[in-house]
Design goal:
This is Histidine kinase. Mean pLDDT is about 85; it is low at about 1-15. This protein has about 130 residues and is mainly alpha-helical. About 75% of the residues lie in helices and about 0% in strands. The longest helix has 24 residues, at about 35-60. It has one domain (about 10-125): Four Helix Bundle (Hemerythrin (Met), subunit A), CATH 1.20.120.
Amino acid sequence: MAQSVSIPSLESARVDRTNRPIDLVHLARQTMGDQMLEQEVLRMFERQVNVYFERLRATHDHYELELGLHTLRSASVGIGATALADIVRGAERELAEAGRVDPETLDDMAMAVSEVSAYILNLIAD
């Protein structure tokens, strides 16, 4: 039996939004307040975010990197992981302008992916 995600009240989420790696108010809007759907979306994103990032880090193919960055950014925006999406957006700009992504940007992205993943795991564990 699936446990429900403990989503904070709307007011507490507004107060604390900037300190969370996922905007739970945005996620609630995207899932029309369906907590079971929120939980499933979070689980799917947590499973996939690390896979997508590792593929990004491993590829040297420009097209694969471009596609991977786009996928990761879009998925991040969709669930409200705006800080991660912003880092990925910067990586997309670097790729477009310089033809590569700076290793420091990838390190920043790795930290953001780790933070989002840990946050989700903490949410769904409650």
